[in-house]
Amino acid sequence: MECTEDGCENEAAVRLHVPWNENRVVCTGHARVLARRDGVVAEPLEGIDWE
């Protein structure tokens, strides 16, 4: 599964639960930035090789 952010072709590794918008799956790079917003909860996807 690919990251849902525009222009990103990295593999999705995190599901972001966004209270004011739809949930989305993103790569670790986008998750680091987007999860800093208040109310956003980051949940690692199962079956991802983190090494």
SS-based class: alpha+beta
Order of helices and strands: EEHE
Distance between the termini: 17 Å
Number of helices: 1
User: What percent of residues adopt helix (DSSP H or I)?
Assistant: 10-25%
Average pLDDT metric? 92
Strand content: 15-25%
> Taking Cα atoms only, what radius of gyration do you get, to the nearest Å?
10 Å
How many structural domains?
1
Principal-axis shape equals globular
Low-confidence stretches: none
Q: Got a strand count?
A: 3
The biggest beta sheet is recorded as: 3 strands, antiparallel
**Lateral arrangement of strands in the main beta sheet:** 2-1-3
List keywords for this structure.
single chain; 51 residues; alpha+beta; three-stranded antiparallel sheet; 1 helix; 3 strands; 14% helix; globular
What does the secondary structure layout of this molecule look like, with pairings?
Layout (H helix, E strand, L loop, with lengths): L13 E4 L6 E3 L1 H7 L6 E4 L7
Antiparallel strand pairs: 1-2, 1-3
